[in-house]
Protein 1
Amino acid sequence: MANNKESKPLLSGFMLSTQLMEVDGCNRCQECMKWCPTFAVRPDRPGITPMYKNARWRELMAKSHSLRAKVFGAKPLNDDEMKQFTDDTYSCTTCGVCGTVCEAGIKTVELWEAMRPNLVKRGDGPVGKQSFFPKLVKADRNPYQAKQEERLCWVPKDIKIPESGEIVYFAGCTAAYRQQALGVATVRILDKLGVPFAMLGKDEWCCASAMVRTGQREVMAEHAVHNVDALKDAGAKTVLFACAGCIRNSAIDWPKWYEGYIPYKNVPLSVFLREKIRKGEVEYKIPLNYSVTYHDPCHNGRHLMHEMGKDWAFEASRDCIQSIPGVKFRDMVRNRALQRCCGAGGGVKAGIPDLALDCAKARVKDGEEVSAEIMASTCPFCRRNIMDGRNDAKSSIKVLDVVELMAASMGLDTTIPENPYTKFQEQDVLVCGPSTCKLDTVERKEPGKDLVGEAH
Amino acid sequence: MAFYTLGLTFNLVILLTVIVLAVWIYGIYFNFKKWGLGSTGYHDQLRNSFWLFLATWIHEAFKDGLWVFLRTVVLDVLLLRRTLARSPVRWVMHMSMFYGFLMLAALSGLGLMVDIVEHFDSIFGLAHEAEMVKELMALPFDIFGYLLLIGSTIAVSRRILLKFVRDNTSAYDAFLIGAVFLITVTGFYAEWMRGNAFLLGNLFESPIYAPHFALIHTVMALGLFAFVLPWSKYIHVIATPMTLIGNRGGE
């Protein structure tokens, strides 16, 4: 096996020719090293930073494609250097802050995501439990080994949800099976506001974000095409997302795999709700007397700011939080386009969980520095990972979704109906009485049979 | 024409210039062909083509229209907007080096043209005008030389004085910055040996060895330009502006 791999050169076919140029465009200014969230917690491993990854890729390619290789023949790659490079490449959360600060204008997220399939094809990647993603998703259409028929099992009985309509709420696997408080809060708010929304139910398949992030693209085509067709068949004109991973994939990745016309608009739920707040349709009843900070998820922040604008990417969620009575909002030092990644993305949570945990602890510390009691976000994976970091750091910060804060303040009943996945729920919640809300944590009753963590 | 006293003739200089340019152009072609090993689209077939790399790059560069292309060239490539946003000191350093290097290279090219015109006086009859142009070029040579000196001094100082920068400086970085600094300094010293030292007059004048030193400076500069730059990671001098344009300014 080792010998077989040694004989293979580094593959570059999944990279655009302009991306190969970008690797050579790195001028080693070191700016990315100052911002990289994984290097911040692994300062002894500069190899995981973009500058070093580019240099390593260049060296590996040079073994087969340099002038020396043309004249004297290619040098074989050895297992040790490929393993090191693979580890370094997969120790990246694809958060994209390096691309934001890159002086050479390298689109780093796309670059790392194009490098990884080459490593997968060569047999070097993915790492850790990431290899379970395609098998699980292909078998069950979600990564939690849950039944598709039970996608909507958490929806309160008094809310009737049609299968088609112009506004469709795409909940995502995590809200459906592991963080149902988010799903319940969302449908309660939409119902309260009189929004006629539909859901796809069993026709909603995993967005396949984890596969794209980890370079395992083979399942992607099927899921992208299915989901887009399902949304079109449902008559969607507006698709609401309360999951950062899902909206990133829907807005950026699915169109790369779908050949037909996509008639609907992808809208972050916070943007949709902000419009309702501005129109005066949202009525708050209970003040939330907490200091709240906002963690910008990479997937619907930096990744989408060029698709949707900075206002949608960064300000809508903050506006929603600040509209809630009683909330004392404080931004962390690193925010918006320069925020610090929680560490869950890019498959790191599943592949290198200790690295993800250390990144999360660093983010929790950011929250503590501004004395936040609640760290709000709009990404279930960030939430899961920051909660793990919080627990490990024994911090008192609670982690909730913006939608849940709004639902609590609106006085809505966000009790999750009993369902086959109730026992797997573990999340911070707001328990509200007639005039006040208290923070609490729901502990998981069973470990579940998850092969991979709740993170992309 | 002291330059030609070391056994170098005009014809030999022209021949060497052609060789240097040919090596440089082949180096650029070689890199473009290497970049052509990638695909032309997200899941396109591999083409492995020099021309398709160029086509892909042009397609990307003009994807958002001519206005965005021009804006990127001016703001990101010529004014280094992204560097300014991150570090004003690095911006001053890069701007000084970028324009110093670029203008000195352009002036050197112009100087060669003038030499050619002067050499073929029997055809052009412009020897006098050529001499005037040479005199006019002295001041810009000085200005851009000092600009490059300022930039390369900041670069070397950063690498030495700032711990984080120093710790992450590789031999490659040290070689490139050291070479640029050395070429700049030797260029100045060659000028001083000719008796043209700014504010210092003829303090360092040494007419006998001035041509030797000037030759060393020229060989080092051309060597870096043609035999190192396209064949090493220093290709970023070409690849970085192309990346900025291809990515329409980047994230």
Note: Residues 9-32+48-246 of chain B form one domain.
Protein 2
Amino acid sequence: MTVQHHIDFDHLKPEEFEHILPDLFATGDGKVSQDPRLKKFLADNPDCAALVSDLEAIAETARSLFEPVAEPSDRVWQNIQAKLQEDSVLASIDDDYIDPDAPID
Amino acid sequence: MSSQGQMMTQATPSRANLGLFKRNPPIAGEAEAIEAAQKGDAEAFAKLYNLHKRRVYTLCLRMLGNVSEAEDMTQNAFLHLFRKLGSFRGESAFSTWLHRLTVNLVLMQLRKKGLSLVSLEETVNPADDDTPKRDFGSQDQILAGSVDRVTLERAVAALPPGYRMVFVLHDVEGYEHNEIAVMLDCSTGNSKSQLHKARLRLRELLRNPSPPHMSVYPESEQ
């Protein structure tokens, strides 16, 4: 059960709103501005409405950051290749290893 | 396999992963490249690198905050991928699996650098005086409509590491609070609270942006 269950949305105070805001954003689809329980409160408290609007804009724009923006330098792939080559050489040495103490047929 | 290794390669199809699956539609030729690379085909592995290098690097860059460490971590992630590729079973999108592996490697790296479970919590829970002000602002300063990805990227880079981590994992990468709580070894409530504080801090940063000539991510961050 979330803290919202104990809230009287018809008589919500800005301090209470501030307290439950992280939980409001975390539940549902995060669209606090569309929550019908908050319609009157946000209409009566424009500063709270502005805060909600800003935080929603930030969260919405953040989703567009999922697409990559940067590319690693060529050095990264060169290092990966060198390391894999090194591992491969070591593996082949392991494969060729002959136990000097093994009995001779 | 160690429990740590299992954690890095697990591919549980949670709700968030299903969401990421939608955000990670299959890439043409990827399945064949995975199959060939699993059999040791070097060219196929190079193809996987080229398909995913930008996304992995961008994730590392956002979480670590500097170019040099992000490149090292990208290298580490793909070397780890090469060694663990055989354990990929296709239960989630390959890119989701690779992202999870990368995130876990980054978190391990941050812990090695001194962010132990306790100090990580401290980083995620900055002192009260570091907490963003609950500035409700005024309507004439409303950000909506003026936030674009370039300015937001710059602001995210300026976030303290703990805030940045939770914000990137939740708002950018699409992980849910319960998953972040497991990854960061904190409570779900803590994850929600830190995300909210991160957004509040971003709001402050977006209202007072740094000079535009400054690089988003430095070469190295002291």
Note: The CA atoms of residues 81 and 98 of chain B lie 7 Å apart.
